[in-house]
Amino acid sequence: MNRTVSIPKTGPQSCGDCPIRHRAVCARCDDEELVQLEEIKFYRSYQAGQVIAWSADRMDFVASVVTGIATLTQTMEDGRRQMVGLLLPSDFVGRPGRETAPYDVTATTDVVMCCFRKKPFEEMMLRTPHIGQRLLEMTLDELDAAREWMLLLGRKTAREKIASLLAILARRDASLQLREPEGVISFELPLTREAMSEYLGLTLETVSRQISALRKDGIIEIRGKRQITVPDFDRLLEETGDDTDGGFLV
Amino acid sequence: MNRTVSIPKTGPQSCGDCPIRHRAVCARCDDEELVQLEEIKFYRSYQAGQVIAWSADRMDFVASVVTGIATLTQTMEDGRRQMVGLLLPSDFVGRPGRETAPYDVTATTDVVMCCFRKKPFEEMMLRTPHIGQRLLEMTLDELDAAREWMLLLGRKTAREKIASLLAILARRDASLQLREPEGVISFELPLTREAMSEYLGLTLETVSRQISALRKDGIIEIRGKRQITVPDFDRLLEETGDDTDGGFLV
DNA sequence: CGACTCTTTGAGTACGCTCAAGGGGTGTGG
DNA sequence: CCACACCCCTTGAGCGTACTCAAAGAGTCG
Q: Is the keyword DNA-binding assigned to this protein (chains A, B) (predicted)?
């Protein structure tokens, strides 16, 4: 963990090519604004497992996740850990106006981030309403997701928690392939059992047991450790405890 | 519950007198902008227990809490409930650009709200960066609070949860009286045992038992059902499981 | 092949839940 | 003024879900 091996910087050549162009904090910017952003931006890459920022560290940049998955985690004095954010491509890291990171930020897969030096970014936000507007929209979405998550943490059973997480990942995977999640779905788990347990407020043993149980009940199939197949997405949804028709927010 | 008795509208006369003027969504507005806001605003009052908006209801306004406490709650099909937001004076309700409420909004005490008709408010946001900027700041704060709450829901014991809630309420009460929370503190519980259990992801019996336990251990004293005295705030903090020196975000 | 990481499974335990009964305060009606 | 109903809260007994501690299997890399 935290090996500082340098790996190729695989950021896009320019904003025009960027895979998150239409969803990230820069989504509403026009060409002129993108030119300004290009001047203060740089790419950084992190290996799976590497810590991007420690809680209470100074962070001199804000950033968008371009590819890969990162997490925000809080740790208690005695070591209990709770994941409080799951950052996917296009998600934003850092808070304008804040000096230090309030959470540990970790790359769970290899990650490429599009970073902006903080000071110039803050100055640009003041002149460029498009950025603040988009950031507000994204923050409101994150707040909705956090509240959905609070319901999961406070009220769902272990089995429902696992099913909910799998449903979220399946949905996300489907949306990357631009199709509706339905019928047979197959995707790769980007999280270890431990990361899942930190996400769900469980122990890793309970996560493992519940995944085995869902497999035995035919809700999911597993190839190797990480490749999940959901033969019937609706059956998975029934296990989440959520309203079957209600829309999900992640 | 939900009695539609009309009670006196006790909103301030004008924005200049408003007790939340410096903290609400209008905090950064200048006099000219306040005049515009006055044109689209109106006050509404709700009795303790009354539902302000049901989940999936159309909401034609957004609002600031002026006095009292309101809650946001999610309900699962089988009736399990989880509070996902605690709204205090100056907090903002509603999301610009969204038609329907995603949560039940309930007044737990008598509440006065400063409401803005949604459409004109959204239009004004486009012309008035001060509003969007302040709303972004408030939303980021709420997201931080939600994440603190996720740690509580996912990882804390029942005793720690109760202590954390009491600490939050004590802090808030102290800040209303413009002093630091330390030494002997006394305040009134604005929540029933049931509301506390919905907040903390517990049953009301467990809440009651843990409050009794804290009382037996001398961490708190209770007069009647709702008046709490904390003889030593630091001892209460030790029971929360949090870093004793780390700052809290609510 | 051995070392390492991640995962699975088992056995026993404990914390918080469920079900149940009863206490205390307040308001209403006889 | 008392009786009663109602709400909120407390306490008890037993149970079950998820945790703890422990051991071993599976996959990967050097």
A: yes
